[in-house]
Specification:
four-stranded antiparallel β-sheet, 8 helices, Rossmann fold, seven-stranded mixed β-sheet, alpha/beta, single chain
Length: about 270
């Protein structure tokens, strides 16, 4: 059901993967190495005597959805915080598009294309839907017409045009999540981390969020996602990684006939 992920040149820390068939006779010569949207190398993090991250490595390509698996306490959110620069890591390397951003703060990583949707509500409660998104656009764009055009695009893309004037506290859980994703995309990320995107929302809204994730994938955005709703997450991901196992798991879509069998394989 699972096969190994492509071999990684983890020793170089370059954020590149090498095709094992590149030097095969008749293959047309060596192929260029792939530069990933996000590469994580040997992350280490301890809290006191407890080691939470122990050499975690993973890659996310442009237009790829990678699922991060593990039970409560496995270090998934700690891994996200380390990638974003929210928590200081004890060791490891973060690369965006092949560029080492390990030493950069959170805003520096954001400017280089790293986006984040936290598990907890992050909407600005004192603002309307439109104001939430406009606040991010104004940090990136200077032309008012360009800001207005992009604002209208984001409101339309995420189905919240009719909500634009509503104050944030008036939104339902699903509406709030859509607004938060639209606001995250206002920063024009190349890769985005989604921490529990299905938490606290109804089944219809979950279907909407899944459609939005697929839309981001089609636009070439790399996505790293974790969620306790494993069934829903499995319908989205191209690959699976377990931070405690350190070795990524690659899913063959054609060999996964049912969600129940996939979930059983993960729990085993």
């Amino acid at each position: 059901m699972f096969d190994e992920a492509p071999s990684l040149d983890s020793g170089s820390g370059s954020g590149q993967a090498h095709d094992p068939d590149a030097a095969r006779p008749g293959g047309g010569g060596p192929k260029p190495a792939v530069t990933f949207a996000l590469s994580v190398r040997r992350l280490e993090k301890s809290f006191g005597s407890r080691k939470v991250l122990d050499g975690v490595s993973l890659d996310v390509a442009a237009g790829e959805v990678v699922g991060l698996l593990g039970p409560n306490g496995a270090g998934k959110t700690v891994c996200f915080y380390g990638i974003m620069g929210i928590n200081r890591l004890d060791g490891g390397q973060i690369l965006l598009g092949g560029e080492d951003v390990t030493a950069l703060p959170m805003d520096g990583r954001g400017k280089r294309g790293l986006g984040y949707l936290p598990q907890e509500a992050s909407i600005f409660r004192g603002m309307s839907v439109e104001e939430n998104i406009r606040a991010v656009l104004e940090l990136r764009l200077r032309d008012n017409d360009a800001i207005d055009r992009r604002l209208d695009e984001l409101l339309g893309d995420f189905g919240i045009t009719r909500l634009r004037a509503l104050p944030a506290p008036a939104l339902s859980g699903g509406e709030r999540r859509r607004c938060e994703i639209a606001r995250a995309m206002a920063a024009d990320p190349k890769v985005i981390l989604l921490d529990e995107p299905f938490a606290g929302i109804d089944p219809m809204s979950i279907a909407d969020i899944k459609a939005m994730v697929r839309q981001l994938k089609q636009r070439g955005v790399g996505i790293l996602i974790t969620d306790h709703n494993v069934h829903e997450m499995l319908e989205l991901v191209d690959r699976l990684c377990h931070p405690c196992r350190q070795a990524p798991l690659r899913r063959r879509a054609a060999s996964c006939p049912s969600r129940s069998r996939r979930a059983a394989a993960l729990s085993g």
